[in-house]
Amino acid sequence: MTDLRYDAIILGGGFSGLTMAVALAGPAARSPMRVALIDERPTDVPLPAEGDGRAFAITSTSRQMLAALGVWNELAPHAQAVNRIEVLDSPLDAHDRPVLLNFDREGVETSASIIESRFLLQAFDAAASASPHITRLQGARAIDIDGDGPSASILLEDGRELHCSLAIAADGRNSPTRDMVGIRTIGWSYRQYGMVTTVSHELPHNGVAVEHFLPAGPFAILPLPGNQSSLVWTETEEEAQRMQALDDADFTAELRRRFGDRLGEVTLAGPRRSYPLSLMLAQNYIAPRVALVGDAAHVLHPIAGLGFNVGLRDIAALGETMLDAARLGLDIGSPTVLERYQAWRRFDALKVGLVTDALNRLFSNDNPLLRQLRDFGLTAVDRAGPLKSFFMSQAAGEDHGLPRLMTGSPL
Q1: Is residue 340 part of a domain?
Q2: CA 295 – CA 172 distance, rounded (Å)
Q3: Mean pLDDT in the chain?
């Protein structure tokens, strides 16, 4: 049986796993650790060229983190700055769709940039592959984790046994690692599906993002480079299943009803995908010599587009906690170090989860009284300068106590 030792072992080779590996041991890391990345994707299976149809809104603080990790220069040509966000709340077939609230960052740094998921995955995949401090174990699967004792041991399906000071679960919402170490979750299904796709349109978007609240859920138009936009479209389970069964022509006709004619003729320009929406929060972010990050720790409604950014904050906070401990000669997997990480991150994710949950419940309905109240509230916020500035800073991820990476400083 092979015995391999590392400072940290990351379980999961998706966004969170690759980003965590690059933060700890990538080309820009000042004090790189010895890291193993366990990825079930076999070496002979390439990353999908067309992606999964998703795009992420990268806040200004997340953008600073990507720069500190050395990947922003590669991503910048594929990013579209958001110059303004317009919020609408009108019935599906309403001819008049007034903008009730707009966030305009004219004259200051943009609050967000939109990037297709495939470019993020490719950039982090390349950065991880370029680091001599990251060992990629592709086609491998962990079947057992034991965190008792002076190190954690991870047994792989092929019989190899790995050892590390800290194991990091970055293996998604259905995290096998979280289950193996007995961390429970709380949450619920929204009985909604999120549908994502990319469209081309006749007219330029000018960097304007649109959030149109409809009875079934929000319909978001996120600008991409050129005359293209990414759609994040929320529907009930039943309606989403019906939509996904439509051919491209009928599906396009449905999305045009929601998109409107503001950008002229609209056509599909990418794959369409759907996935169930839910709220999930891990009751603990840590177990003996194990820490959770990203979707393994929390799954949020996409109504505010913050889920990916909250996951980046996890990674930045855990990386800073680990490296600060290592520089002091401390055990990076000790309870004291892990408790610091949990105290730093758990409340923030809970706060964002509850806010997105409340927003979804408030806006995903067609109650006439609620519509009047929320439209009044949106208009009031639009006219209140300080309150509007507060929401803009929150959307940009600007907050006190941010990890160093999110201020642009390398670990």
Answers
A1: yes
A2: 5
A3: 89
User: Residue 14: which CATH number?
Assistant: 3.50.50.60
The answer to whether residue 294 sits within a structural domain is yes
Write out the chain in H/E/C secondary structure.
CCEEEEEEEEECCCHHHHHHHHHHHCCCCCCCCCEEEEECCCCCCCCCCCCCCCEEEEEHHHHHHHHHCCCHHHHHHHCEECCEEEEEECCCCCCCCCEEEEEECCCCCCCEEEEEHHHHHHHHHHHHHHCCCEEEEECCCEEEEECCCCCEEEEECCCCEEEEEEEEECCCCCCHHHHHCCCCEEEEEEEEEEEEEEEEECCCCCCEEEEEEECCEEEEEEEECCCEEEEEEEEEHHHHHHHHHCCHHHHHHHHHHHHCCCCCCEEECCCCEEEEEEEEEECCCEECCEEECHHHCEECCHHHCCHHHHHHHHHHHHHHHHHHHHHCCCCCCCHHHHHHHHHHHHHHHHHHHHHHHHHHHHHCCCCHHHHHHHHHHHHHHHHCHHHHHHHHHHHCCCCCCCCHHHHCCCC
Q: CA separation (Å) from 230 to 47, 244, 266, 273, 364?
A: 20, 17, 12, 12, 21
Q: What is the pLDDT of residues 246-286, one digit of tens each?
A: 999 999 999 999 998 889 999 999 889 999 999 999 999 99
Strands 55-59 and 84-89, how do they pair? unpaired
Note the pLDDT of residue 107. 42
Which residue type does 41 have?
R
Residue 371: predicted pLDDT: 66
Q: How many domains does the chain have?
A: 1
Q: Please tell me the distance from the alpha carbon of residue 307 to that of residue 305, in angstroms, as a whole number.
A: 6
Determine the Cα–Cα distance for residues 28 and 409; give it in Å rounded to an integer: 11
Q: Is the pLDDT of residue 309 over 70?
A: yes
Q: What is the pLDDT of residues 347-392, one digit of tens each?
A: 999 999 988 888 888 877 777 777 666 666 666 555 555 444 545 5
Give the range of the structural domain holding residue 332, as residue numbers without chain letter.
3-49+118-186+279-367
What pLDDT, in 10s, does the model give residues 80-104? Answer: 999 988 888 877 777 777 776 777 7
Q: Do residues 273 and 54 lie in contact, with contact meaning Cβ atoms separated by under 8 Å?
A: yes
